[in-house]
Specification:
The chain has 90 residues and is of the alpha+beta class. The chain has a domain of 55 residues. Helix content is 23%, strand content 23%. It has 1 helix and 6 strands, in the order αββββββ. The strands form 3 sheets. It has a two-stranded antiparallel sheet with strand order 1-2. Strands 3-6 form a two-stranded antiparallel sheet. Strands 4-5 form a two-stranded antiparallel ribbon. A hairpin with a 2-residue loop joins β1 and β2. The longest helix has 21 residues. The chain is elongated and about 75 Å long. The termini are far apart. The mean pLDDT is 82. This is DUF6520 family protein.
């Protein structure tokens, strides 16, 4: 019984660590936000492709892209970040 009482703080720490990871979800903080061109203006895309939007077949239009300094006013696209297709919100 005495050893159980000594190990209670360790057990509480292990349970706290398990619950800390069990009830959190990963965030996309390290990813640059994506933008889409709607009516000639860059708008930030929220959500995930296939869940909140999809990119339909259209090789001549940018579906989503990352912008330099995440600045939709200047709208400078980071080279290689473009995904081509028609932006279709779901």
């Amino acid at each position: 019984m005495n050893t159980l009482i000594k190990r209670l703080p360790l057990l509480a720490f292990v349970l706290a660590a398990v619950f800390a990871f069990a009830f959190t979800k990963p965030t996309l903080e390290n990813q640059n936000p994506k933008f889409t061109l709607i009516n000639g203006e860059w708008e930030m895309v929220t959500g995930q492709v296939g869940v909140n939007y999809r990119c339909g077949e259209n090789p001549n239009v940018i579906c989503t892209a990352e912008l330099v300094d995440n600045d939709p006013i200047l709208g400078e696209v980071i080279e290689g970040s473009e995904v081509f297709g028609a932006y279709i919100p779901l």
